[in-house]
Each structure stands twice: as C-alpha cells, then as structure tokens.
Amino acid sequence: DKTGTITTGRLIVNRVVPVGDHDADDLASAVSAVTFALNDDNETAIAIKEYFPQPPQWTVTNTVPFSSARKWSGATFSDGTSYFMGAPEFTFGDTLTAENTTAINDAAAAGYRVLAVGRTPDALSVPLTHTDLIGFVLIADEIRPAAMDTFTYFAGQDVQLKVISGDNPITVASVARRAGIQGTDQYVNMTTVGEQPDYDALVRDY
C-alpha cells in the first residue's frame, strides 16, 4: 500500500494552478471553503488548511463528504453555488481540454496528486453537472526515509514488489520510482479491467 508504506502519509500543497478567467484568489476561496465546511482532519485536509489557513465567511447549506467511489467532496453555500474538489477524471471527465489533460498528466508524472477544483450552480450529484473548472491543486507525498533501502533489500532477496493505491496510477508510478521500485512503467488502472479480471495475469504483467 503506497500511503504509510512507501510514503509517510504526510502531504504538502506544492502549488495551485488557476485555470481560464479564474485567479489565485478564486481558487483559494473555493478550496478553503470546501475544506473548512467539511471539517475533515485527514492528511489532504490538513495540508490544504496549512496552505490556506483562512476560509471565506460563506454560509454552508449542504456538504458532500469525500468517498473513495465518488473521488470528490463538496459543499453548497447560501447563494446556491456548489463548490467541489477531487480527482480530475471523476469531476470533469471528458470535458477537460487537451491542454488541461496534458497539464494533469505532466503533474502526475512528476509525482503530484492533482485535485481539480470547480463549481456548479446545480446541487451536488453524480455525475456533476454544469461544472466550471477553477483550477488545480498539486499535492506532494513525502517518501519514508528508509523506503529505498527497504525495497532494495527485498529486490535483492528476489521478492517481487507490487504497489496498490487509490491515487492516480501515473502519480503512484512516479512515487514508486522515486522510492527505487523497479517496473514502475508497468502499471494498470483497475477501473479499466472489467467486472471479472484475470488476477493471475494482472499480477504477472503489472
């Protein structure tokens, strides 16, 4: 498991990237508003609160907590606008421009976890509707100090290492590469393998 094994579990906001007509203030307001509205204390929320310590004084009318199936969280405020953040492929999907997709893939390849931040005039639902992309938050994992030595030892004992994570596969591969794990170009996105995958083949090939 990547988090807590390869990485310490501590996350750091590396930088924020506004998109389109939005600026850094728009992005900061949206991210901090959702994070403080949900009042989470997970590592992602802690990292965001450290980076954006002051939320806007908006009245919250509804919240949708993060779920591993949905891959996003959000909140609705008294003016009827809903803000959300989560995995880009789950929040914006095919509506992302080629330029945005390239930027996301480049950030993931550099080892960053990418959160897409957006808003909608609609209620928060699955799928999200009438979405407006505000920008991205790039979050970095911290590699455990002893990770590389540990994985080098196992490799020397002919132990084959596999990495499992709920994060973007490209990001996970980059983190594993930084930790010295071999074969990181052979990754698979488990959302693409169907209802009855051949696990023997997956374990052999990835």
Summarize the structure.
With 206 residues, this protein is an alpha+beta fold. The protein has helices spanning 24-38, 43-51, 88-91, 98-109, 147-156, 169-178, 199-205, and strands at residues 7-18, 60-64, 72-77, 82-86, 112-120, 132-143.
Question: Please, could you describe this protein's structure?
Answer:
With 206 residues, the chain is α+β, with helices and mostly antiparallel strands. Helix content is 33%, strand content 24%. The protein contains seven helices and six strands, in the order βααβββααββααα. The protein has a six-stranded antiparallel β-sheet, with helices on both faces. α4 runs parallel beside α6 (169-178). It is globular and about 60 Å long. The two termini are 15 Å apart.
Global structural class: alpha+beta
SSE order in H/E notation?
Answer: EHHEEEHHEEHHH
Q: Gyration radius, to the nearest Å?
A: 18 Å
| Main β-sheet, spatial strand arrangement | 1-6-5-4-3-2
Shape: globular
- Beta-strand proportion: 15-25%
Amount of helix: 25-40%
Major sheet size, sense and barrel closure: 6 strands, antiparallel
